[in-house]
Specification:
7-stranded mixed beta sheet, Rossmann fold, 9 strands, binds S-adenosylmethionine, 287 residues, 2 domains, two-stranded antiparallel sheet
Length: 287
């Protein structure tokens, strides 16, 4: 079945009385070459988890290359469609569940014997950042994430310090993974087309985080605080998030080699690590 052909998509929709739900981010990809590229980039041989299979167009490409594909789809109207479009594969399991309400550690353990797998998805736009954040923060046994996202989200993940796009998402992704934009995808290649262009992003998980920190939770709290109010100096942002006086904070910042007047968005990853470690040391010295 040519699942990328607009005529076939319309035919399946008519057969099942399916109407696209914008609220569920249902923009289906119609480019065979990009689907193949995503499937290859995911290196799915040992196992792959797909989020949001839709009519199964990417699932099909993954199934050809993988030992086992598990696909989580929130929309129950798609379950009978997928049984039909994926009928030639016996290595695919479709689960009718919301990815945000699924214990992914448990699912990977059960379905893939705890093996390191990849995640591949053309992500629903309304929930892109929460899904990426959950997948990265949950410390799952993952090799890589290969996802179609809004171009603007891919640019935020790749952003450099002192730019508008740089933020807590950049740091989170770069702490655990090496992100790489594989290609930009114009809105016209989706059915129906979304309002913005997209990008295929691959994030390969690193063997160990890109910087060493004394306390991971404190590191991410520091990052979150630094970006909480972009108009304020880093000193003021930290003062509102940590119960520490400004004199102590200035001293902490200087000991980390950071001028208190700087803004959070100017710090690079190593500086955030030095700052979080300096807060950690200060707290230890007060105990
Ligand atoms: N994989 C298909 C493709 O590439 O054409 C469809 C991608 S479409 C952008 C996103 C899919 O995610 C839809 O099938 C939608 O129903 C599903 N979806 C939306 N929210 C979801 C959620 N919270 N959990 C699982 N699937 C979800």
């Amino acid at each position: 079945m040519e699942l990328t052909s607009p005529a076939v998509i319309k035919g399946i929709a008519a057969k099942y009385g399916f109407t696209f739900k914008k609220g569920l981010g249902q923009n289906f990809l119609t480019s065979q070459s990009i689907l193949e590229e995503i499937a290859e980039a995911a290196e799915p041989e040992e196992g792959v988890l797909e989020i949001g299979p839709g009519f199964g167009v990417l699932t099909n490409e993954l199934a050809k290359r993988s030992e086992k594909v598990v696909a989580l789809e929130i929309d129950e109207r798609l379950i009978p469609v997928l049984a039909d479009t994926l009928s030639e594969h016996n290595n695919v399991k479709v689960i009718n569940k919301d990815v945000m309400k699924t214990d992914l550690n448990e699912l990977i353990e059960e379905e893939f014997d705890g093996k390191r797998i990849s995640v591949a998805a053309n992500l629903p736009y309304y929930i892109t950042t929460p899904i990426i954040t959950t997948l990265i923060e949950s410390e799952l046994p993952l090799k890589s994430l290969v996802v179609m996202v809004q171009k603007e989200v891919a640019e935020r993940i790749q952003a450099k310090p002192s730019t508008k796009a740089y933020g807590a998402l950049t740091i989170l992704c770069r702490f655990y993974t090496e992100p790489e934009i594989i290609r930009i995808v114009p809105a016209g290649l989706f059915m129906p087309p979304p309002n913005v262009d997209s990008a295929v992003l691959r994030m390969r998980f690193l063997e160990k985080p890109s910087v060493e920190v004394k306390d991971r939770e404190l590191f991410f709290k520091t990052v979150k605080a630094a970006f909480s109010q972009r108009r304020k100096t880093l000193l003021n942002c930290l003062a509102s998030s940590f119960s520490l006086g400004k004199d102590a904070l200035s001293e902490i910042m200087r000991s980390a080699g950071i001028e208190p007047g700087r803004r959070g968005e100017t710090l690079d990853m190593a500086e955030f690590a030095a700052l979080a470690d300096a807060i950690y040391e200060y707290r230890q010295s007060q105990n």
